[in-house]
Amino acid sequence: MQTQVLPVNEESIKLAADLLRRGDLVALPTETVYGIAADARNGEAVKKIFLAKGRPQDNPLIVHICGMEMLHGLVSEVPERAYRLAKAFWPGPLTMVMPRGPEVSDVTCAGLDTVGIRMPSHPVVQAVIRASGVAFAAPSANLSGRPSPTNAADTLADMDGRLPLILDGGDSDVGVESTVVSVSGEHPVLLRPGYVTKEQMEEVLGEEVLVSHAILEKLRPGETARSPGMKYKHYAPKAQVTILKGDFEKYKAYLQEHAAPGVFAMCFDGEGKDLPVPAIEYGTNGDGASQAHHLFTALRECDKQGAQVVYARCPLSNGVSMAVYNRLLRAAAFRVEEL
Ligand code: TXA
Ligand code: MG
C-alpha cells in the first residue's frame, strides 16, 4: 500500500473523511500525539488499526468526538463527574472511561463494558470528525511498543505502507498522550497521567482522584491492569534506557565513570555541553510541560543517533511531570538507579 502524506487543506480533509466513512484508516495530528483513526462503530475498520500497529487485541482504543451530542449511542450513561470534567477540560487532552453504549464495536473496547472517550482540541481532528460525521477510535500512531509520534515524519517512519493517508499538521503541542481517568466507578481513578493533572481534576471535582498503582509501579505477576495499555513495555527506543535519580553533579560523575562508545545522556536543556558523552536534551529541568513536549522526539532521536545505552535524568513525579515519569519508566522497562 502506498502511504500519502498531505498538508492540511479542504481537499485533504475531505479525502480523510471519505476514507473514514469507507472503513479505511487515516493518521492525523492531535494536540497530544499523532493518532490512527478508524470508525469506532465499524469493527472491520478498527481491526485494521490493530494490524497496522501490531497492537495486542486486548488493549482498548479511545473514541474521539467533537461535541457532547455525539456521546449518544457511544456511552450508556454520562456520570455526573463526566459533565464537570468535560466542562473544565474538553475539548482537550482528557479521556474519560464511561459505561459503554450499544453502538461501539467490541473490537474498539477489546470486549470491556466501558469505553474511553475524548474530545480533542486540535482543529484538524475536529475538522475531520465534522466532515465525516464519524466518531473514531484512535490510538497513538506508533508501531506497538515504540515512542508515540508527535509529527508527520515520525508517523511515516512507523506507518509507511501500512495505511493510505497521513495528514501533516505540524508538531503536536502537548507531546504525550491524553490523561485517562475512570469516572464510571465509585471513585474517580487516574489510569494514565497526562497534561491534565490529578491535582487539576481534584480541584474541579472537589474529591480525591485515586491513582492506579500501575502508573508508577510495575504490575505484579498475574495482576490485571485497569488500563490494559499499562501492562506493556512501551515507548521504548532500541537502546537500553536507565533513569538516574539524583542531582546534576552526581549524574555527571556517574556518566564520567560509565562513558563508552554507544553510551548517551538524555538530560535537561543546557546540560549536554558539560557531559562526557553525546547528549540529547528533553526540556527544561523542573518543567513537566516542556519535558512532555520533547520526550518522545528525544527517545526517537536516541535511535536515529545509534545509542545503545541511554542514561536519563529523572523528572519529578507530580503535576504534568507524572506523565513524563510514567512514560520514561516504561521506556526504561522500570530500570531506575538512585545515585
Ligand atoms: O492522546 C491520546 O489519547 C492519543 C491520541 C491519538 O488521541 N491516543 C492514545 O491512544 O493514546 P492509545 O490507544 O495509544 O492509548 C489508549 C489508552 C491505553 O492505555 C488503554 O489501555 C486505555 O487508554 N483505555 C482505553 N479504553 C479504556 C477502557 N475502557 N478502560 C480502561 N482503559 C482504557
Ligand atoms: Mg499508545
Polypeptide structure, described:
The chain has helices spanning 10-21, 43-53, 80-89, 106-109, 123-132, 152-159, 198-205, 248-258, 288-304, 321-331, and strands spanning 4-7, 26-28, 35-39, 62-64, 94-99, 114-118, 136-137, 165-168, 179-182, 189-192, 210-211, 240-245, 263-267, 279-281, 309-313, 336-338. By secondary structure, it is an alpha/beta fold. The chain has a nine-stranded mixed beta sheet with strand order 2-3-7-4-6-5-9-10-11, with helices on both faces. A five-stranded parallel beta sheet has the order 14-13-15-12-16, sandwiched between helices. Strands 1-8 form a two-stranded parallel sheet. A hairpin with a 6-residue loop joins strand 9 and strand 10 (189-192). Helix 1 packs across helix 5 and helix 9 (288-304) packs parallel to helix 10 (321-331). Bound molecules: threonylcarbamoyladenylate and magnesium ion. The site of magnesium ion has 4 residues, from loops. Magnesium ion binds at residues 139-140, 148, 177.
Secondary-structure topology with pairs:
Elements: E1 4-7, H1 10-21, E2 26-28, E3 35-39, H2 43-53, E4 62-64, H3 80-89, E5 94-99, H4 106-109, E6 114-118, H5 123-132, E7 136-137, H6 152-159, E8 165-168, E9 179-182, E10 189-192, H7 198-205, E11 210-211, E12 240-245, H8 248-258, E13 263-267, E14 279-281, H9 288-304, E15 309-313, H10 321-331, E16 336-338
Parallel strand pairs: 1-8, 4-6, 5-9, 10-11, 12-15, 12-16, 13-14, 13-15
Antiparallel strand pairs: 2-3, 3-7, 4-7, 5-6, 9-10
Bound molecules: threonylcarbamoyladenylate and magnesium ion.
Residues 139-140, 148, 177 line the site of magnesium ion (MG).
